[in-house]
Amino acid sequence: MKKIDLKILKTMLISGANNLYNHHYEVDKLNVFPVPDGDTGTNMNLTMMNGVKGLDNKDFTTFKEFGKEFSRGLIMGARGNSGVILSQIFRGFFHDFVHNKEYTDMKVLKPQYILKALMQAKEYAYKAVMKPVEGTILTVIKDGASKVNEECKDEKDSLVVFQALLKAMQDSLTLTPTLLPILKKVGVVDSGGAGLVYIIEGMVYGLKHNKPIAISKKLSPENNKFDFSVNNDEEFGYCTELIVKLNHIDSPDFDLSKTRSDLEEMKGQSLVVVEDQNLLKVHVHTLQPGEILNYLQKFGEFLAVKVDNMTEQAKAHSQTIIATRKLANPYAVIAFVPGKGIDAFFKEQLNVAETIFYSNKINPATDDILRTIAAVDAKVVYILPNDSNLLLTAEQAKKLEKKSKVFIIPTVNIAQGMRAALSFNSSLSGKENSRIMTNEINNVNYGYLSIADRNVEIDDIEIKKNHYITAGISKNNRKLKILASSEDFNITVKKLFDKILWKSTEIITIFKGKTATEEQIANLTKILEDNYDIEYEFVDGQQSIYNFLFVVE
């Protein structure tokens, strides 16, 4: 009979996080639209990893301390809607252990406690979403919690409870396409539900074997996995500076150009390598300073070594900003942007105070948003998420922000973000500005062009892999829909324009992405010149995935 104490619970959660990590790229691929922008698995993975990171090298004496630490880590690291919902599931699970004195002296997580905690997890998950949709992760946690409360109310073995939970969730996940027609049409199960099942599967393994599932060392999209060993936007790594006294300056073992090349292959950034007589001076930013040191040691003796943790320095700097905030500015607008060119456009043309970058590979965490709010140091802050997948994370940050008054303008694309920013009036109150900006976001159309990554039929349009695909929001339909797909660029774009251009359209702003070609730009220009009497402007947006984003005003 298996019992869950604090040590086993920690093992279970690490195992759950590892199992999700090993499969998160598979979860990413369960996106509905046939463009390679699925990020549910990545968001849930990063959220979960931030939670278990807080458990490392810590000994807990109570479930209250454990639950507070893990829940806080999840909330601060929550990315995307799926990450926020996941954080709320575990927040609900640990709620009574953290807040109810009845559990203060609890040493073992008994089955009856687990059953009650699962029902709390379900309640918190549904509360996190304004308009809950069945056939999603919400259904999976609901069905799992309800089923085990029916089947295991007299069970004494915690392993049996979690095995029943896993089976119920797997069954529920299989049925998600019957509840959400778009899943059935595309031929996938819900991605958030799949991510949750992988977590529970890992937890069951940890409980059964008293050790976590091993984490895959090397993941890549080519084998349906992803490599996170490369530095990302939130990891600064270590600033490593050293001086090596070369043993044999003329030795064939040492070659300056090869040394530079080798250090670059080790993912070294901001690299400076200088040879001065018999001394080698190196400056490099890296996530693995030990690897750099081991490599260079073969050339001689270290005369000086200096390694600074830039991640911790950055956090300390952010905490200093937060602690010393005086709300010097009356207001500030923060916008989420998917490309460096769009970043510049929002700051220079729309007077946005600060931007937060997001992409198909990584979304900002709750903590990233809180640090940005602190940095703008304003009494009133307006946040433009510009993506439906970022709304819940923004709302989570709003709840946690203690100093600034925060308004979330529910923009779900770049077009709505532009319109909201243009509608801002510094002479109005925060509440009045929020009302006007929110009302204005529906007075703009939006569309995109990308390349399909698989064969599928959606919105009654047959889509083939590697064909052009357009989707848009028009005046008659405020929901994003696939509008055309073809191997012919001009035909696909013309069908899109016929749907999203109004008779009263004055200007269309076209953000060209990293994959846009000069030929495509020329073709777009000709289509607009020959068929529509409107102004147009090209902006180098530098976004990934989407060849072009279209904003119609």
Range of strand content? 15-25%
Radius of gyration, whole Å: 26 Å
> What structural category do the secondary elements indicate?
alpha/beta
In the sheet with the most strands, the strands line up as 13-12-9-16-14-15
Spans of at least 5 consecutive residues with low confidence:
220-235
The main pleated sheet reads as: 6 strands, mixed
Distance between the termini: 65 Å
| Shape, per Cα inertia axes | globular
In percent, how helical is the residue content?
A: 40-55%
Provide mean pLDDT, rounded.
Answer: 87
Q: How many helical stretches?
A: 19
- By DSSP, the count of extended strands is 16
Describe this protein with a few key phrases.
about 550 residues; alpha/beta; 4-stranded antiparallel β-sheet; about 20% strand; globular
Task: Please characterize this protein's 3D structure.
It is a single chain. This protein has helices at 6-28, 40-53, 63-77, 80-99, 111-127, 137-151, 158-179, 181-186, 191-209, 256-265, 289-297, 310-323, 340-349, 366-376, 391-400, 414-423, 430-440, 489-500, 518-531; strands at 238-246, 269-276, 279-286, 300-309, 329-337, 354-357, 378-384, 405-408, 445-451, 456-458, 461-463, 468-473, 481-486, 507-512, 535-540, 548-552. The protein is an alpha/beta fold and 553 residues long. Strand 5, helix 13 (340-349) and strand 6 form a beta-alpha-beta unit. Helix 2 (40-53) runs parallel beside helix 4, helix 4 (80-99) packs across helix 5 and helix 6 crosses helix 7. The model is unreliable at 220-235 (pLDDT under 50).
